[in-house]
Specification:
Blueprint (H helix, E strand, L loop, with lengths): L14 H14 L6 H14 L19 H14 L6 H10 L1 H14 L19
Length: about 130
């Protein structure tokens, strides 16, 4: 029987890295994705770095810095919001903001909490991606 690794809560990437991604996407866009997708990236990261008062999907206001657990939870809500049979308040976000927005929030918060899925970074990105 092998020992299972101890669970550790998700942590946000550094504020410097998150701010650099906001600056990069704001200046260059994100490949050939829609403006709605880019808006979702910037909105999610702005919330994660404390520049937006409310979360991008649930609209929660924390009044303090976002933790990795909260970002991970918001990512889960974004995933749920992609489906019409989800909580009506979550589905409404996708209907009003667009599917690309909701997908971008989900992908961005997956990356922001250190996942190996989500956003792709530029080839010359100075931060390590293996976490």
């Amino acid at each position: 029987m092998s020992a299972q690794p101890e669970w550790t809560p998700p942590e946000l990437r550094s504020q410097d890295e998150l701010k650099a991604m906001v600056a990069y996407v704001t200046e260059h866009g994100y490949g050939s994705t829609s403006k709605t997708y880019v808006r979702g990236i910037v909105t999610a990261l702005s919330w994660a770095i404390g520049e937006a008062d409310v979360s991008p999907i649930t609209g929660r206001s924390l009044g303090r810095p976002v933790t990795g657990m909260e970002a991970s939870g918001e990512r889960s809500r974004a995933y749920e919001a992609l489906y019409p049979n989800s909580d009506p308040a979550l589905w409404r976000v996708t209907q009003e903001q667009g599917q690309d927005y909701t997908l971008a929030v989900e992908h961005t918060l997956a990356w922001a909490t250190g996942g190996d899925t989500g956003l792709a970074v530029p080839a010359d990105w100075p931060w390590p991606q293996d976490r």
